[in-house]
Amino acid sequence: MNNVCLVGNMTRDPEIKHLPSGTIVCEMGVAVNDRKPDGNGGYTDYAHFFDVTCFGKLAENCGQYLSKGKKVGITGKLEQQRWEADDGSKRSRVKITAFNVEFLTPKDQDGSSSSQGAYADEPKIAGGPQDDDIPF
Predict the structure, then answer these.
(1) Residue 95 · residue 53 · CB < 8 Å
(2) Which of 2, 37, 77, 113 is the 20 to 30 A CA-CA neighbour of 93?
(3) CATH assignment of 1-31+47-81+97-126?
(4) What is the pLDDT of residue 47?
(5) Euclidean distance between CA atoms 105 and 126, whole angstroms
(6) Which strand (E) or helix (H) includes residue 73?
(7) Would you kindly state where each structural domain of the chain is located, as residue ranges?
(8) To the nearest 10°, the Cα dihedral for 31, 76, 81, 11?
(9) Rounded CA gap, 105 and 43, in Å?
């Protein structure tokens, strides 16, 4: 099983690219806050940084509605990329391929003065079911 679910903040504006096939690709960065005991009865806060990629309509929605600092919920899978560097050393990194991205920043915190701002046509969950599709 290869599933990942995280909530964090966008570390940069999404980058939209188009594959030769016409498929839209969105690449973005997400920081997830964490804390661990410091050994003195307190905690140390730190962040994990992840590269996230999504495709198709999900990528289009992310590119249109997300920006640096926005809070998102990501569901997807981990993918390891491997290559050989110019010096012959082997390299690898793990990226997240998103299946679902939920926009978690409230509309009143996005800098618009009313509910009719940049989010007027935003889907609640990009690439996922809408409220009308949920049976409860």
Answers:
(1) yes
(2) 37
(3) 2.40.50.140
(4) 94
(5) 13
(6) strand 71-84
(7) 1-31+47-81+97-126
(8) -20
(9) 26
